[in-house]
Amino acid sequence: MTATRTARERARAELTQEIKDEARRQLADVGAHGLSLRAVARELGMVSSALYRYFPSRDRLLTDLIVDAYNAIGEAAENADPGEGEPRDRWLAIWQATRDWARAHPHEYALIYGSPIPGYQAPQDTVAPASRVALALVKVLTHTELRAVGDVPPELRAQAETLTKALGIVAGPETVARLLMAWTQLFGAISFDLFGQYVGSVDPADAFFAHSARRMAEFVGL
Protein backbone atom coordinates (compact mmCIF):
# COMPACT_ATOMS: atom_id res chain seq x y z
CA MET A 1 0.00 0.00 0.00
CA THR A 2 2.79 2.38 0.96
CA ALA A 3 4.76 1.62 -2.20
CA THR A 4 1.66 2.20 -4.34
CA ARG A 5 0.91 5.48 -2.64
CA THR A 6 4.53 6.61 -3.06
CA ALA A 7 4.43 5.75 -6.76
CA ARG A 8 1.22 7.74 -7.16
CA GLU A 9 2.73 10.71 -5.36
CA ARG A 10 5.80 10.53 -7.56
CA ALA A 11 3.69 10.35 -10.71
CA ARG A 12 1.63 13.32 -9.53
CA ALA A 13 4.76 15.36 -8.83
CA GLU A 14 6.17 14.55 -12.26
CA LEU A 15 2.97 15.53 -14.06
CA THR A 16 2.69 18.71 -11.98
CA GLN A 17 6.18 19.62 -13.13
CA GLU A 18 5.30 18.88 -16.76
CA ILE A 19 2.28 21.16 -16.49
CA LYS A 20 4.39 23.99 -15.09
CA ASP A 21 7.11 23.46 -17.70
CA GLU A 22 4.54 23.71 -20.50
CA ALA A 23 3.03 26.80 -18.88
CA ARG A 24 6.48 28.43 -18.78
CA ARG A 25 6.93 27.65 -22.45
CA GLN A 26 3.63 29.32 -23.20
CA LEU A 27 4.67 32.40 -21.22
CA ALA A 28 7.25 33.00 -23.93
CA ASP A 29 4.57 32.83 -26.64
CA VAL A 30 1.53 34.54 -25.15
CA GLY A 31 2.69 36.14 -21.90
CA ALA A 32 1.08 35.72 -18.49
CA HIS A 33 -2.13 37.46 -19.55
CA GLY A 34 -2.64 34.88 -22.32
CA LEU A 35 -1.90 31.77 -20.27
CA SER A 36 -4.74 29.25 -20.55
CA LEU A 37 -5.26 25.99 -18.70
CA ARG A 38 -7.07 24.62 -21.75
CA ALA A 39 -4.11 25.40 -23.98
CA VAL A 40 -1.69 23.79 -21.52
CA ALA A 41 -3.88 20.69 -21.31
CA ARG A 42 -4.14 20.50 -25.09
CA GLU A 43 -0.36 20.63 -25.57
CA LEU A 44 0.12 17.88 -22.98
CA GLY A 45 -2.57 15.68 -24.53
CA MET A 46 -4.79 15.99 -21.46
CA VAL A 47 -8.45 16.80 -21.12
CA SER A 48 -9.08 20.03 -19.25
CA SER A 49 -10.96 18.27 -16.46
CA ALA A 50 -7.87 16.17 -15.68
CA LEU A 51 -5.61 19.23 -15.49
CA TYR A 52 -8.03 20.94 -13.10
CA ARG A 53 -7.29 18.21 -10.57
CA TYR A 54 -3.74 19.59 -10.40
CA PHE A 55 -4.48 23.27 -10.80
CA PRO A 56 -8.09 24.27 -10.10
CA SER A 57 -7.67 27.65 -11.77
CA ARG A 58 -5.36 29.70 -13.97
CA ASP A 59 -4.56 31.86 -10.94
CA ARG A 60 -3.40 28.83 -8.94
CA LEU A 61 -1.07 27.88 -11.78
CA LEU A 62 0.19 31.46 -12.06
CA THR A 63 0.86 31.57 -8.33
CA ASP A 64 2.95 28.40 -8.52
CA LEU A 65 4.92 29.81 -11.45
CA ILE A 66 5.43 33.10 -9.61
CA VAL A 67 6.59 31.37 -6.43
CA ASP A 68 8.95 29.18 -8.46
CA ALA A 69 10.41 32.23 -10.21
CA TYR A 70 10.90 34.17 -6.99
CA ASN A 71 12.56 31.15 -5.39
CA ALA A 72 14.81 30.61 -8.39
CA ILE A 73 16.07 34.19 -8.56
CA GLY A 74 16.40 34.21 -4.77
CA GLU A 75 18.40 31.01 -4.82
CA ALA A 76 20.71 32.46 -7.48
CA ALA A 77 21.31 35.51 -5.28
CA GLU A 78 21.92 33.43 -2.16
CA ASN A 79 24.27 31.00 -3.90
CA ALA A 80 26.36 33.90 -5.22
CA ASP A 81 27.19 35.04 -1.69
CA PRO A 82 30.20 33.15 -0.30
CA GLY A 83 29.20 34.22 3.20
CA GLU A 84 32.65 35.60 3.96
CA GLY A 85 35.18 38.00 2.50
CA GLU A 86 34.81 41.66 1.64
CA PRO A 87 31.19 42.79 2.08
CA ARG A 88 31.40 44.94 -1.03
CA ASP A 89 32.49 41.93 -3.12
CA ARG A 90 29.64 39.87 -1.71
CA TRP A 91 27.18 42.67 -2.54
CA LEU A 92 28.45 42.93 -6.13
CA ALA A 93 28.27 39.14 -6.57
CA ILE A 94 24.62 39.10 -5.50
CA TRP A 95 23.75 41.93 -7.87
CA GLN A 96 25.47 40.22 -10.78
CA ALA A 97 23.93 36.82 -10.10
CA THR A 98 20.46 38.36 -9.91
CA ARG A 99 20.95 40.04 -13.27
CA ASP A 100 22.42 36.88 -14.80
CA TRP A 101 19.37 34.86 -13.75
CA ALA A 102 17.01 37.47 -15.16
CA ARG A 103 18.83 37.55 -18.50
CA ALA A 104 18.78 33.75 -18.68
CA HIS A 105 15.06 33.57 -17.80
CA PRO A 106 13.51 36.74 -19.27
CA HIS A 107 9.93 35.45 -19.44
CA GLU A 108 9.94 34.23 -15.85
CA TYR A 109 11.48 37.53 -14.80
CA ALA A 110 8.72 39.38 -16.67
CA LEU A 111 6.17 37.28 -14.81
CA ILE A 112 7.34 38.62 -11.44
CA TYR A 113 8.68 42.08 -12.33
CA GLY A 114 6.83 42.97 -15.52
CA SER A 115 3.40 44.47 -16.01
CA PRO A 116 0.64 43.44 -13.57
CA ILE A 117 -1.51 40.57 -14.80
CA PRO A 118 -5.10 41.75 -15.37
CA GLY A 119 -7.48 40.13 -12.92
CA TYR A 120 -4.77 38.40 -10.89
CA GLN A 121 -4.13 39.17 -7.22
CA ALA A 122 -1.01 37.60 -5.75
CA PRO A 123 -1.73 35.73 -2.49
CA GLN A 124 0.25 36.02 0.73
CA ASP A 125 2.34 32.93 0.01
CA THR A 126 4.28 34.85 -2.65
CA VAL A 127 5.64 37.33 -0.10
CA ALA A 128 8.37 35.21 1.48
CA PRO A 129 9.83 33.99 -1.85
CA ALA A 130 9.73 37.57 -3.15
CA SER A 131 11.89 38.69 -0.22
CA ARG A 132 14.81 36.33 -0.83
CA VAL A 133 16.98 38.65 -2.94
CA ALA A 134 16.48 41.53 -0.51
CA LEU A 135 17.29 39.28 2.43
CA ALA A 136 20.47 38.10 0.71
CA LEU A 137 21.53 41.75 0.52
CA VAL A 138 20.47 42.31 4.13
CA LYS A 139 22.68 39.41 5.19
CA VAL A 140 25.71 41.22 3.78
CA LEU A 141 24.84 44.33 5.78
CA THR A 142 23.85 42.67 9.05
CA HIS A 143 27.34 41.80 10.27
CA THR A 144 29.11 44.70 8.60
CA GLU A 145 30.08 47.98 10.21
CA LEU A 146 28.42 50.51 7.94
CA ARG A 147 29.33 54.11 7.44
CA ALA A 148 26.90 56.59 8.99
CA VAL A 149 24.25 57.44 6.42
CA GLY A 150 22.12 60.07 8.15
CA ASP A 151 18.49 59.96 9.19
CA VAL A 152 15.02 59.66 7.67
CA PRO A 153 11.77 61.65 8.08
CA PRO A 154 9.39 60.42 10.80
CA GLU A 155 6.82 58.87 8.44
CA LEU A 156 9.50 56.85 6.65
CA ARG A 157 11.09 55.90 9.96
CA ALA A 158 7.84 54.28 11.07
CA GLN A 159 7.57 52.33 7.81
CA ALA A 160 11.20 51.22 8.04
CA GLU A 161 10.76 50.04 11.61
CA THR A 162 7.67 48.05 10.63
CA LEU A 163 9.55 46.43 7.76
CA THR A 164 12.52 45.66 10.01
CA LYS A 165 10.25 43.79 12.42
CA ALA A 166 8.48 41.95 9.60
CA LEU A 167 11.77 40.74 8.13
CA GLY A 168 13.25 39.88 11.51
CA ILE A 169 16.43 41.87 10.90
CA VAL A 170 18.51 44.25 12.97
CA ALA A 171 19.10 47.51 11.12
CA GLY A 172 18.48 51.19 11.61
CA PRO A 173 15.67 52.95 9.73
CA GLU A 174 18.07 54.83 7.45
CA THR A 175 19.91 51.64 6.55
CA VAL A 176 16.59 49.96 5.73
CA ALA A 177 15.47 52.94 3.66
CA ARG A 178 18.71 52.95 1.69
CA LEU A 179 18.53 49.20 1.20
CA LEU A 180 15.04 49.63 -0.26
CA MET A 181 16.35 52.29 -2.62
CA ALA A 182 19.20 50.01 -3.67
CA TRP A 183 16.79 47.09 -4.13
CA THR A 184 14.64 49.32 -6.34
CA GLN A 185 17.69 50.33 -8.34
CA LEU A 186 18.72 46.70 -8.79
CA PHE A 187 15.43 45.59 -10.30
CA GLY A 188 14.88 48.87 -12.09
CA ALA A 189 18.22 48.48 -13.85
CA ILE A 190 17.48 44.87 -14.76
CA SER A 191 14.00 45.74 -16.04
CA PHE A 192 15.25 48.67 -18.11
CA ASP A 193 17.83 46.35 -19.65
CA LEU A 194 15.51 43.41 -20.40
CA PHE A 195 12.60 45.53 -21.62
CA GLY A 196 14.71 47.65 -23.99
CA GLN A 197 14.62 50.94 -22.10
CA TYR A 198 18.38 51.43 -22.38
CA VAL A 199 18.44 51.23 -26.18
CA GLY A 200 20.01 54.40 -27.51
CA SER A 201 21.58 55.33 -24.17
CA VAL A 202 23.63 52.69 -22.33
CA ASP A 203 23.11 49.65 -24.53
CA PRO A 204 24.73 47.22 -23.84
CA ALA A 205 24.19 48.00 -20.18
CA ASP A 206 26.93 45.84 -18.63
CA ALA A 207 29.20 48.73 -17.63
CA PHE A 208 26.31 50.84 -16.37
CA PHE A 209 24.94 47.95 -14.29
CA ALA A 210 28.35 47.27 -12.72
CA HIS A 211 28.76 50.97 -11.97
CA SER A 212 25.29 51.10 -10.39
CA ALA A 213 26.10 48.09 -8.21
CA ARG A 214 29.27 49.75 -6.93
CA ARG A 215 27.59 53.08 -6.28
CA MET A 216 24.69 51.43 -4.47
CA ALA A 217 27.19 49.58 -2.27
CA GLU A 218 28.61 52.96 -1.32
CA PHE A 219 25.13 54.37 -0.91
CA VAL A 220 24.10 51.80 1.73
CA GLY A 221 27.35 52.38 3.64
CA LEU A 222 29.65 49.59 2.48
Walkthrough of the structure:
- The protein has 222 residues and is mainly α.
- It has eleven helices and no strands.
- The N and C termini lie far apart (58 Å).
List strands and helices in order, with pairings:
Blueprint: H1 2-30, H2 37-44, H3 48-51, H4 58-80, H5 87-104, H6 106-113, H7 127-130, H8 132-142, H9 154-167, H10 173-194, H11 206-220
Helix pairs in contact: 1-2, 4-5, 4-6, 4-8, 5-8, 5-10, 5-11, 9-10, 10-11
Number of strands: 0
What is the averaged pLDDT score? Answer: 89
Strand content: under 5%
The structure class reads mainly alpha
Largest sheet: none
Helix/strand order: HHHHHHHHHHH
Radius of gyration: 20 Å
**Poorly predicted spans:** none
Q: Quickly count the helices.
A: 11
In one word, what is the shape?
elongated
